[in-house]
Design goal:
Strands 13-10-12-11-15-16-14 form a seven-stranded antiparallel sheet, sandwiched between helices. The protein has a five-stranded antiparallel sheet with strand order 3-4-8-6-7. The N terminus is likely disordered. The chain is built from 15 helices and 16 strands. Strand 3 and strand 4 form a beta hairpin. The chain is of the alpha+beta class and about 400 residues long. Helix content is about 40%, strand content about 25%. The site of flavin-adenine dinucleotide (FAD) has 24 residues, from helix 2 and strand 8.
Length: about 400
Protein backbone atom coordinates (compact mmCIF):
# COMPACT_ATOMS: atom_id res chain seq x y z
CA UNK A 1 0.00 0.00 0.00
CA UNK A 2 1.73 3.19 -1.12
CA UNK A 3 2.26 6.08 1.29
CA UNK A 4 0.76 9.26 -0.11
CA UNK A 5 1.73 12.88 0.47
CA UNK A 6 -1.29 15.05 1.17
CA UNK A 7 -1.31 18.65 -0.08
CA UNK A 8 -1.98 21.07 2.79
CA UNK A 9 -1.96 24.85 2.89
CA UNK A 10 1.78 24.52 3.75
CA UNK A 11 2.57 22.27 0.78
CA UNK A 12 3.09 18.53 0.80
CA UNK A 13 4.05 18.49 4.42
CA UNK A 14 2.00 15.77 5.98
CA UNK A 15 2.47 12.14 4.96
CA UNK A 16 -0.65 10.06 5.07
CA UNK A 17 0.01 6.39 5.76
CA UNK A 18 -2.56 4.07 4.35
CA UNK A 19 -3.56 1.35 6.76
CA UNK A 20 -3.72 -2.29 5.82
CA UNK A 21 -5.57 -4.38 8.32
CA UNK A 22 -4.87 -8.09 8.52
CA UNK A 23 -7.63 -10.48 9.51
CA UNK A 24 -6.22 -13.78 10.80
CA UNK A 25 -9.69 -15.33 11.04
CA UNK A 26 -9.12 -17.80 8.19
CA UNK A 27 -6.07 -19.25 9.98
CA UNK A 28 -8.39 -21.23 12.20
CA UNK A 29 -7.26 -24.84 12.08
CA UNK A 30 -6.09 -27.25 14.71
CA UNK A 31 -3.02 -28.69 12.97
CA UNK A 32 -2.22 -31.54 15.35
CA UNK A 33 -2.92 -32.81 18.84
CA UNK A 34 -0.12 -34.72 20.57
CA UNK A 35 -2.02 -36.72 23.19
CA UNK A 36 1.16 -38.13 24.70
CA UNK A 37 2.88 -34.80 25.27
CA UNK A 38 -0.43 -32.99 25.83
CA UNK A 39 0.27 -30.24 23.30
CA UNK A 40 -1.82 -28.83 20.49
CA UNK A 41 -0.47 -27.03 17.40
CA UNK A 42 -2.88 -24.47 16.00
CA UNK A 43 -3.05 -21.74 13.41
CA UNK A 44 -2.97 -18.48 15.33
CA UNK A 45 -6.28 -17.07 14.06
CA UNK A 46 -8.34 -19.76 15.76
CA UNK A 47 -10.70 -18.34 18.37
CA UNK A 48 -10.11 -19.39 21.97
CA UNK A 49 -13.75 -20.51 22.28
CA UNK A 50 -13.55 -22.67 19.13
CA UNK A 51 -10.28 -24.24 20.27
CA UNK A 52 -11.71 -24.96 23.71
CA UNK A 53 -14.71 -26.70 22.10
CA UNK A 54 -12.48 -28.85 19.89
CA UNK A 55 -10.17 -29.72 22.77
CA UNK A 56 -13.19 -30.58 24.93
CA UNK A 57 -14.36 -33.05 22.26
CA UNK A 58 -10.95 -34.73 22.50
CA UNK A 59 -10.98 -34.79 26.33
CA UNK A 60 -8.62 -31.83 26.87
CA UNK A 61 -8.77 -28.18 27.87
CA UNK A 62 -6.54 -25.16 27.38
CA UNK A 63 -8.06 -23.55 30.48
CA UNK A 64 -7.63 -20.02 29.07
CA UNK A 65 -10.70 -17.90 29.81
CA UNK A 66 -10.08 -14.15 29.56
CA UNK A 67 -13.27 -12.15 30.01
CA UNK A 68 -13.11 -11.61 26.23
CA UNK A 69 -13.04 -15.42 25.72
CA UNK A 70 -16.02 -15.52 23.34
CA UNK A 71 -14.21 -13.53 20.62
CA UNK A 72 -10.42 -13.57 21.05
CA UNK A 73 -7.97 -15.40 18.81
CA UNK A 74 -5.10 -17.47 20.18
CA UNK A 75 -2.60 -15.30 18.25
CA UNK A 76 -4.11 -12.16 19.83
CA UNK A 77 -3.85 -13.73 23.27
CA UNK A 78 -0.19 -14.64 22.75
CA UNK A 79 0.60 -11.23 21.22
CA UNK A 80 -0.78 -9.55 24.37
CA UNK A 81 0.36 -12.11 27.00
CA UNK A 82 -3.21 -12.41 28.15
CA UNK A 83 -4.30 -13.97 31.42
CA UNK A 84 -7.55 -15.84 31.88
CA UNK A 85 -9.86 -16.14 34.84
CA UNK A 86 -8.32 -19.56 35.66
CA UNK A 87 -4.73 -18.46 35.14
CA UNK A 88 -3.89 -18.85 38.83
CA UNK A 89 -4.10 -22.59 38.21
CA UNK A 90 -3.51 -23.01 34.47
CA UNK A 91 -1.01 -20.18 33.97
CA UNK A 92 -1.25 -17.20 31.62
CA UNK A 93 -1.15 -17.84 27.86
CA UNK A 94 2.60 -17.09 27.75
CA UNK A 95 3.18 -19.96 30.19
CA UNK A 96 1.23 -22.30 27.90
CA UNK A 97 3.29 -21.57 24.77
CA UNK A 98 5.65 -24.43 23.95
CA UNK A 99 6.54 -23.24 20.48
CA UNK A 100 5.50 -20.68 17.87
CA UNK A 101 6.17 -19.25 14.44
CA UNK A 102 6.49 -15.56 13.65
CA UNK A 103 6.31 -14.27 10.09
CA UNK A 104 8.03 -10.90 9.87
CA UNK A 105 8.68 -8.66 6.84
CA UNK A 106 12.41 -9.56 7.05
CA UNK A 107 12.08 -13.28 7.72
CA UNK A 108 10.52 -16.04 9.71
CA UNK A 109 11.29 -17.24 13.24
CA UNK A 110 10.45 -20.82 14.16
CA UNK A 111 10.76 -21.20 17.93
CA UNK A 112 11.04 -24.94 18.57
CA UNK A 113 8.28 -26.57 20.61
CA UNK A 114 10.03 -27.93 23.70
CA UNK A 115 9.11 -27.71 27.40
CA UNK A 116 12.22 -25.70 28.28
CA UNK A 117 15.38 -24.50 26.61
CA UNK A 118 18.65 -22.95 27.73
CA UNK A 119 19.56 -22.06 24.15
CA UNK A 120 20.07 -18.36 24.71
CA UNK A 121 17.34 -15.80 25.53
CA UNK A 122 13.97 -17.42 24.93
CA UNK A 123 12.59 -16.20 21.60
CA UNK A 124 9.12 -17.41 22.59
CA UNK A 125 9.19 -14.98 25.51
CA UNK A 126 10.30 -12.10 23.25
CA UNK A 127 7.53 -12.77 20.76
CA UNK A 128 4.76 -13.29 23.33
CA UNK A 129 3.65 -9.74 24.16
CA UNK A 130 5.11 -8.20 20.99
CA UNK A 131 1.64 -6.86 20.05
CA UNK A 132 2.14 -7.34 16.33
CA UNK A 133 5.12 -4.97 16.06
CA UNK A 134 7.63 -7.73 15.23
CA UNK A 135 5.45 -9.63 12.76
CA UNK A 136 2.50 -11.96 12.65
CA UNK A 137 2.35 -15.02 14.88
CA UNK A 138 0.95 -17.63 12.51
CA UNK A 139 1.28 -20.90 14.43
CA UNK A 140 1.37 -21.70 18.12
CA UNK A 141 1.99 -24.95 20.02
CA UNK A 142 0.28 -24.87 23.39
CA UNK A 143 0.37 -27.10 26.43
CA UNK A 144 -3.09 -28.54 27.19
CA UNK A 145 -4.47 -30.39 30.20
CA UNK A 146 -6.98 -33.17 30.67
CA UNK A 147 -10.50 -31.79 30.73
CA UNK A 148 -11.66 -31.57 34.35
CA UNK A 149 -14.36 -33.99 35.50
CA UNK A 150 -15.57 -31.38 37.91
CA UNK A 151 -15.31 -27.68 38.67
CA UNK A 152 -15.98 -26.88 42.33
CA UNK A 153 -16.34 -23.09 42.78
CA UNK A 154 -17.29 -21.68 46.18
CA UNK A 155 -17.77 -18.31 47.84
CA UNK A 156 -15.94 -17.11 50.97
CA UNK A 157 -16.31 -13.97 53.04
CA UNK A 158 -13.37 -12.22 54.69
CA UNK A 159 -13.45 -9.51 57.32
CA UNK A 160 -11.43 -7.23 55.06
CA UNK A 161 -9.30 -7.11 51.90
CA UNK A 162 -5.99 -7.48 53.78
CA UNK A 163 -7.01 -10.71 55.52
CA UNK A 164 -8.27 -12.02 52.15
CA UNK A 165 -5.03 -11.48 50.30
CA UNK A 166 -3.00 -12.76 53.26
CA UNK A 167 -4.99 -16.02 52.96
CA UNK A 168 -4.24 -16.16 49.21
CA UNK A 169 -0.56 -15.53 49.92
CA UNK A 170 -0.54 -18.44 52.38
CA UNK A 171 -2.08 -20.75 49.77
CA UNK A 172 0.38 -19.58 47.10
CA UNK A 173 3.42 -19.99 49.28
CA UNK A 174 2.31 -23.44 50.48
CA UNK A 175 2.04 -24.49 46.82
CA UNK A 176 -1.68 -25.12 47.32
CA UNK A 177 -3.27 -22.54 45.03
CA UNK A 178 -6.71 -23.23 43.57
CA UNK A 179 -7.37 -22.69 39.83
CA UNK A 180 -9.55 -19.62 40.33
CA UNK A 181 -8.79 -17.15 43.11
CA UNK A 182 -10.72 -13.93 42.90
CA UNK A 183 -10.96 -11.61 45.89
CA UNK A 184 -12.94 -8.35 45.78
CA UNK A 185 -12.15 -5.41 48.04
CA UNK A 186 -14.81 -3.88 50.29
CA UNK A 187 -16.21 -1.51 47.62
CA UNK A 188 -16.44 -4.17 44.90
CA UNK A 189 -18.03 -6.62 47.36
CA UNK A 190 -20.74 -4.07 48.19
CA UNK A 191 -21.47 -3.49 44.49
CA UNK A 192 -21.57 -7.25 43.81
CA UNK A 193 -23.95 -7.76 46.68
CA UNK A 194 -26.23 -4.98 45.43
CA UNK A 195 -26.35 -6.72 42.00
CA UNK A 196 -27.10 -10.23 43.30
CA UNK A 197 -30.20 -11.93 44.57
CA UNK A 198 -31.19 -15.32 46.06
CA UNK A 199 -29.97 -17.34 49.02
CA UNK A 200 -26.20 -16.81 48.60
CA UNK A 201 -26.72 -13.06 48.43
CA UNK A 202 -28.95 -13.15 51.55
CA UNK A 203 -26.31 -15.21 53.42
CA UNK A 204 -23.56 -12.88 52.36
CA UNK A 205 -25.64 -9.79 53.13
CA UNK A 206 -26.28 -11.16 56.63
CA UNK A 207 -22.57 -11.83 57.14
CA UNK A 208 -21.50 -8.39 55.95
CA UNK A 209 -24.20 -6.62 58.02
CA UNK A 210 -23.09 -8.51 61.15
CA UNK A 211 -19.48 -7.42 60.58
CA UNK A 212 -20.05 -3.92 59.28
CA UNK A 213 -18.11 -4.48 56.03
CA UNK A 214 -16.33 -7.41 54.42
CA UNK A 215 -14.96 -8.92 51.24
CA UNK A 216 -16.12 -11.70 48.95
CA UNK A 217 -13.85 -14.26 47.31
CA UNK A 218 -14.58 -16.89 44.67
CA UNK A 219 -12.30 -19.88 44.95
CA UNK A 220 -12.41 -22.59 42.26
CA UNK A 221 -10.78 -25.98 41.91
CA UNK A 222 -10.84 -28.03 38.66
CA UNK A 223 -9.86 -31.68 38.22
CA UNK A 224 -10.97 -35.25 38.66
CA UNK A 225 -13.30 -36.10 41.55
CA UNK A 226 -10.55 -37.17 43.92
CA UNK A 227 -8.25 -34.22 43.24
CA UNK A 228 -11.10 -31.73 43.57
CA UNK A 229 -12.10 -33.26 46.92
CA UNK A 230 -8.61 -33.33 48.39
CA UNK A 231 -7.37 -30.00 46.98
CA UNK A 232 -10.71 -28.35 47.77
CA UNK A 233 -10.65 -29.60 51.38
CA UNK A 234 -7.12 -28.31 51.90
CA UNK A 235 -7.90 -24.91 50.41
CA UNK A 236 -10.99 -24.65 52.62
CA UNK A 237 -8.95 -25.53 55.73
CA UNK A 238 -6.34 -22.86 54.99
CA UNK A 239 -8.97 -20.22 54.25
CA UNK A 240 -10.91 -21.02 57.43
CA UNK A 241 -7.74 -20.83 59.48
CA UNK A 242 -7.22 -17.39 57.94
CA UNK A 243 -10.65 -16.35 59.22
CA UNK A 244 -12.77 -16.86 56.08
CA UNK A 245 -16.44 -17.78 56.35
CA UNK A 246 -17.47 -20.35 53.69
CA UNK A 247 -20.59 -19.34 51.74
CA UNK A 248 -21.04 -22.58 49.79
CA UNK A 249 -21.33 -23.18 46.06
CA UNK A 250 -24.10 -20.62 45.32
CA UNK A 251 -21.80 -17.62 44.77
CA UNK A 252 -19.39 -19.80 42.75
CA UNK A 253 -22.16 -21.00 40.43
CA UNK A 254 -23.47 -17.45 40.00
CA UNK A 255 -19.97 -16.21 39.14
CA UNK A 256 -19.40 -19.02 36.61
CA UNK A 257 -22.74 -18.26 34.99
CA UNK A 258 -22.02 -14.54 34.51
CA UNK A 259 -18.24 -14.66 34.09
CA UNK A 260 -18.19 -13.08 30.60
CA UNK A 261 -21.11 -10.69 31.14
CA UNK A 262 -19.56 -7.58 32.76
CA UNK A 263 -18.29 -5.96 29.51
CA UNK A 264 -21.82 -6.01 28.05
CA UNK A 265 -23.09 -4.17 31.14
CA UNK A 266 -20.21 -1.70 30.82
CA UNK A 267 -21.14 -0.91 27.21
CA UNK A 268 -24.76 -0.37 28.24
CA UNK A 269 -23.76 1.97 31.10
CA UNK A 270 -21.53 3.99 28.78
CA UNK A 271 -24.43 4.69 26.44
CA UNK A 272 -26.35 5.99 29.50
CA UNK A 273 -23.73 8.64 30.34
CA UNK A 274 -21.73 6.58 32.84
CA UNK A 275 -17.95 6.41 32.69
CA UNK A 276 -16.60 2.90 33.29
CA UNK A 277 -12.88 2.22 33.03
CA UNK A 278 -10.53 -0.47 34.28
CA UNK A 279 -6.81 -0.38 35.14
CA UNK A 280 -4.76 -3.30 36.25
CA UNK A 281 -1.31 -4.00 37.63
CA UNK A 282 0.65 -6.57 39.61
CA UNK A 283 3.05 -6.24 42.48
CA UNK A 284 4.79 -8.26 45.19
CA UNK A 285 2.96 -9.29 48.37
CA UNK A 286 4.89 -6.88 50.59
CA UNK A 287 3.61 -3.99 48.45
CA UNK A 288 0.01 -5.05 47.73
CA UNK A 289 -1.69 -3.15 50.52
CA UNK A 290 0.24 0.10 49.92
CA UNK A 291 -0.28 0.00 46.15
CA UNK A 292 -3.98 -0.79 46.50
CA UNK A 293 -4.43 2.19 48.83
CA UNK A 294 -2.35 4.57 46.69
CA UNK A 295 -4.05 3.73 43.38
CA UNK A 296 -7.56 3.80 44.85
CA UNK A 297 -6.87 7.25 46.43
CA UNK A 298 -5.37 8.58 43.19
CA UNK A 299 -8.42 7.43 41.23
CA UNK A 300 -10.86 8.96 43.73
CA UNK A 301 -8.97 12.26 43.77
CA UNK A 302 -8.74 12.37 39.96
CA UNK A 303 -12.50 11.81 39.64
CA UNK A 304 -13.24 14.48 42.26
CA UNK A 305 -10.91 16.95 40.51
CA UNK A 306 -13.02 16.45 37.36
CA UNK A 307 -16.15 17.25 39.38
CA UNK A 308 -17.38 13.66 38.94
CA UNK A 309 -16.81 11.75 42.19
CA UNK A 310 -17.42 8.04 41.69
CA UNK A 311 -17.04 4.48 42.85
CA UNK A 312 -13.54 2.96 42.85
CA UNK A 313 -13.31 -0.76 43.38
CA UNK A 314 -10.68 -3.45 43.02
CA UNK A 315 -10.14 -7.19 42.95
CA UNK A 316 -7.28 -9.66 42.96
CA UNK A 317 -7.73 -12.17 40.15
CA UNK A 318 -4.30 -13.71 39.50
CA UNK A 319 -2.20 -15.06 42.33
CA UNK A 320 1.48 -16.04 42.34
CA UNK A 321 4.00 -17.16 44.98
CA UNK A 322 5.57 -13.72 45.12
CA UNK A 323 2.55 -11.46 44.61
CA UNK A 324 -0.73 -10.87 42.80
CA UNK A 325 -2.58 -8.71 40.31
CA UNK A 326 -4.81 -5.76 41.28
CA UNK A 327 -7.67 -4.89 38.91
CA UNK A 328 -9.37 -1.53 39.47
CA UNK A 329 -12.73 -0.48 38.10
CA UNK A 330 -14.00 3.12 38.24
CA UNK A 331 -17.60 4.14 37.72
CA UNK A 332 -18.61 7.79 37.58
CA UNK A 333 -20.86 10.21 35.78
CA UNK A 334 -19.36 11.09 32.39
CA UNK A 335 -18.12 14.70 32.23
CA UNK A 336 -20.41 15.71 29.39
CA UNK A 337 -18.52 17.34 26.54
CA UNK A 338 -15.15 16.56 28.23
CA UNK A 339 -15.30 12.76 28.30
CA UNK A 340 -11.85 12.27 26.82
CA UNK A 341 -10.20 14.78 29.19
CA UNK A 342 -11.90 13.06 32.11
CA UNK A 343 -10.70 9.65 30.92
CA UNK A 344 -7.14 10.91 30.33
CA UNK A 345 -6.94 12.50 33.78
CA UNK A 346 -8.09 9.32 35.50
CA UNK A 347 -5.83 7.09 33.45
CA UNK A 348 -2.79 9.32 33.95
CA UNK A 349 -3.35 9.59 37.71
CA UNK A 350 -3.52 5.83 38.15
CA UNK A 351 -0.59 5.01 35.84
CA UNK A 352 1.67 7.60 37.50
CA UNK A 353 0.95 6.11 40.91
CA UNK A 354 1.30 2.52 39.66
CA UNK A 355 4.71 3.11 38.08
CA UNK A 356 5.97 5.19 41.04
CA UNK A 357 4.57 2.65 43.49
CA UNK A 358 6.34 -0.46 42.20
CA UNK A 359 3.55 -1.98 40.11
CA UNK A 360 3.79 -3.03 36.47
CA UNK A 361 2.02 -0.78 33.98
CA UNK A 362 -0.18 -3.71 32.96
CA UNK A 363 -0.62 -7.23 34.28
CA UNK A 364 -2.60 -8.53 31.28
CA UNK A 365 -4.21 -5.76 29.20
CA UNK A 366 -0.91 -5.14 27.34
CA UNK A 367 0.58 -1.79 26.25
CA UNK A 368 -0.87 -0.62 22.93
CA UNK A 369 -0.76 3.17 22.69
CA UNK A 370 -2.52 4.02 25.95
CA UNK A 371 0.23 2.59 28.18
CA UNK A 372 3.22 3.28 25.93
CA UNK A 373 4.56 6.30 27.85
CA UNK A 374 4.53 4.37 31.14
CA UNK A 375 5.85 1.17 29.55
CA UNK A 376 8.91 3.17 28.39
CA UNK A 377 9.52 4.20 32.03
CA UNK A 378 9.13 0.62 33.23
CA UNK A 379 11.36 -0.89 30.52
CA UNK A 380 14.15 1.75 30.95
CA UNK A 381 15.67 3.64 27.98
CA UNK A 382 18.14 0.85 27.16
CA UNK A 383 15.34 -1.74 27.30
CA UNK A 384 13.24 0.30 24.87
CA UNK A 385 16.22 0.74 22.53
CA UNK A 386 16.89 -3.02 22.59
CA UNK A 387 13.28 -3.77 21.63
CA UNK A 388 13.35 -1.07 18.94
CA UNK A 389 16.54 -2.63 17.50
CA UNK A 390 14.85 -6.01 17.33
CA UNK A 391 11.86 -4.42 15.60
CA UNK A 392 14.18 -2.68 13.11
CA UNK A 393 15.77 -6.04 12.22
CA UNK A 394 12.46 -7.82 11.69
CA UNK A 395 10.49 -4.93 10.21
CA UNK A 396 13.02 -2.51 8.63
CA UNK A 397 10.42 -0.26 6.99
CA UNK A 398 8.22 0.00 10.10
CA UNK A 399 4.97 -1.29 8.65
CA UNK A 400 3.91 -3.59 11.50
CA UNK A 401 1.56 -1.84 13.93
CA UNK A 402 3.47 1.47 14.09
CA UNK A 403 2.96 3.33 17.35
CA UNK A 404 1.93 0.27 19.35
CA UNK A 405 4.16 -0.74 22.27
CA UNK A 406 7.03 1.45 20.97
CA UNK A 407 6.96 5.01 19.63
CA UNK A 408 7.36 5.61 15.89
C1 LIG B 1 -14.31 -6.83 27.08
C2 LIG B 1 -12.88 -7.22 27.16
C3 LIG B 1 -12.45 -8.06 28.17
C4 LIG B 1 -11.12 -8.45 28.24
N1 LIG B 1 -10.73 -9.32 29.23
C5 LIG B 1 -9.44 -9.72 29.27
C6 LIG B 1 -8.99 -10.65 30.27
O1 LIG B 1 -9.75 -11.11 31.12
N2 LIG B 1 -7.69 -11.03 30.25
C7 LIG B 1 -6.82 -10.55 29.31
O2 LIG B 1 -5.67 -10.92 29.34
N3 LIG B 1 -7.21 -9.68 28.38
C8 LIG B 1 -8.49 -9.26 28.33
N4 LIG B 1 -8.88 -8.38 27.36
C9 LIG B 1 -7.93 -7.89 26.37
C10 LIG B 1 -7.93 -8.73 25.06
O3 LIG B 1 -9.07 -9.49 24.90
C11 LIG B 1 -6.78 -9.64 25.05
O4 LIG B 1 -5.63 -8.87 25.05
C12 LIG B 1 -6.75 -10.61 23.86
O5 LIG B 1 -5.67 -11.41 24.06
C13 LIG B 1 -6.76 -9.99 22.53
O6 LIG B 1 -7.00 -11.00 21.55
P1 LIG B 1 -7.63 -10.61 20.13
O7 LIG B 1 -7.59 -11.83 19.29
O8 LIG B 1 -8.93 -9.92 20.31
O9 LIG B 1 -6.53 -9.60 19.63
P2 LIG B 1 -6.72 -8.16 19.01
O10 LIG B 1 -7.42 -7.26 19.98
O11 LIG B 1 -7.26 -8.27 17.64
O12 LIG B 1 -5.19 -7.72 18.92
C14 LIG B 1 -4.48 -7.38 20.07
C15 LIG B 1 -3.05 -7.00 19.64
O13 LIG B 1 -2.35 -8.16 19.22
C16 LIG B 1 -1.99 -8.06 17.85
N5 LIG B 1 -2.24 -9.36 17.23
C17 LIG B 1 -3.42 -10.01 17.12
N6 LIG B 1 -3.24 -11.21 16.52
C18 LIG B 1 -1.92 -11.30 16.25
C19 LIG B 1 -1.10 -12.30 15.62
N7 LIG B 1 -1.60 -13.43 15.15
N8 LIG B 1 0.22 -12.05 15.51
C20 LIG B 1 0.77 -10.90 15.97
N9 LIG B 1 0.04 -9.93 16.57
C21 LIG B 1 -1.27 -10.13 16.71
C22 LIG B 1 -2.85 -6.95 17.26
O14 LIG B 1 -2.20 -6.30 16.20
C23 LIG B 1 -3.02 -6.03 18.46
O15 LIG B 1 -1.92 -5.19 18.62
C24 LIG B 1 -10.20 -7.97 27.28
C25 LIG B 1 -10.65 -7.13 26.26
C26 LIG B 1 -11.96 -6.77 26.18
C27 LIG B 1 -12.42 -5.88 25.05
Amino acid sequence: VPARAIPTSFGFARAHRAVLSLDTGALDEVLSLDRTSQTVRVQAGIRAAALERKLGDAGFTLGHYPQSFEYVSIGGCVATRSAGQNSTGYGSIAEMVDGLTLVAPAGRIDALAVPHTAAGPDLRELIAGSEGVLGVIDEVTLRVRRAPERRAYEGYAFADFASGFEALRELAQQGALPDVARLSDESESEVQLAQSSGTPARMLGGYLRARGRGCIAIIGVDGDERAVRSRGAHVKRVLRQAGAAPLGSGPGKAWLHGRFAAPYLRDELMTLGVMVETMETATVWSNVEALHRAVASALREALEAQGTPGIVMCHVSHVYETGCSLYFTVIARQAEGHELDQWRAVKRASLDVITRGGGTVTHHHAVGEDHREWFAREASPAGVRALAAMRAQLDPTGIMNPGKLLAG
